[in-house]
Amino acid sequence: MNVLIASPFRFVRQIRENLDVIRIMIKKFGFFGLFELLKSDVLYDYRYGVDTYSAVGREELFTGERLALQNRYCPSTFALIDLAIREAHALIGDEIRNCHFVDYGSGKGKVLIGAVKYGFPLARGIEYTERLHRVAVCNLEKLGLNSRAESIHGDATEFFPSPRDRVLYFFNPFEGVVLDQTLQNIKTIEPEGKRVLVVYNPVCDDIFCRYFERVAEKVSNPGQAHYNVYVG
Ligand SMILES: C[S@@+](CC[C@H](N)C(=O)[O-])C[C@H]1O[C@@H](n2cnc3c(N)ncnc32)[C@H](O)[C@@H]1O
To answer: I need a surface site. Which of 73, 153, 212, 230 has the fewest CB within 10 A?
Structure first.
């Protein structure tokens, strides 16, 4: 709260910039849910002096062909990150403590923060835009998480996970041929044990099912976020 008092203008500006997001959130979460979100996600940034929450328009991030293919940057909530990891935990069991975590399209690194908080020894994210990658690096540095969380600047189609990367997170990052190539890369690496993919807004279920077995189709409550869980 002290930080809030120190930078009330920044707080008000960010609320104004995110008014449309807030409207959608009220619809999805109700006022009580929105208050919880404000406490756990929006105020997190003020408490720790980081930038994980605010959305970024796609025109500010992408150009050319990519612009038409991408949505604007909008981060996961900590509640959704926890939910995804709990789903993976239920399937992998306590062995999950030795597994590594990958966020595909990791943006400002918020999911990596959530994964490290949960206890993963290593969480890595692959992020296409240099701008968001730099914000992620800065966030992880400020939080002192560099030894356990890493943002990699690059294209997911060129990234190969390690055998220990067994919890893979997808929050609406990309579709079509980019997704297909990314999943092919994952499939070429034999995991050390059961590998779990948690996918929010699973509009490309058919592509995931080409390579992995779908074991759950669910909706989060609160938030009404649709997600699928795959293994393989
Ligand atoms: C909806 S955001 C999700 C951010 C983060 N995973 C989260 O849940 O908070 C999707 C991210 O995927 C990134 N992205 C899009 N295409 C990509 C690609 N081919 N390789 C890596 N990242 C990509 C975008 O730049 C954006 O940061």
So the answer is: 153
Confidence at residue 17, expressed as pLDDT on a 0 to 100 scale: 65
- The per-residue pLDDT for 14 is 67
pTM of full prediction above 0.70: yes
CB 169 within 8 A of CB 106: no
128 lines ligand 1 (CB under 6 A): yes
Q: Do residues 82 and 105 make contact, with C-beta atoms less than 8 angstroms apart? A: no
Residue ranges in the chain modelled with pLDDT below 50? 1-5
Most ligand 1 atoms within 8 A of CB, residue of 21, 53, 103, 129 to mutate: 129
Q: Which of 111, 174, 185 has the most ligand 1 atoms within 8 A of CB, as the residue to mutate?
A: 174
**122 to each of 102, 148, 162, 174, 177, how far by Cα in Å?**
9, 5, 11, 23, 28
Supply the residue whose CA is at minimum distance from atom 13 of ligand 1: 105
- Domains, in order of start, for the chain: 2-49 (no CATH), 78-231 (3.40.50.150)
Which contiguous run of DSSP H or E holds residue 49? none
Q: How far is the CA of 74 from the centre of ligand 1 (A)?
A: 9
SS3 percent helix, strand, coil of the chain, rounded to 5, is: 50, 20, 30
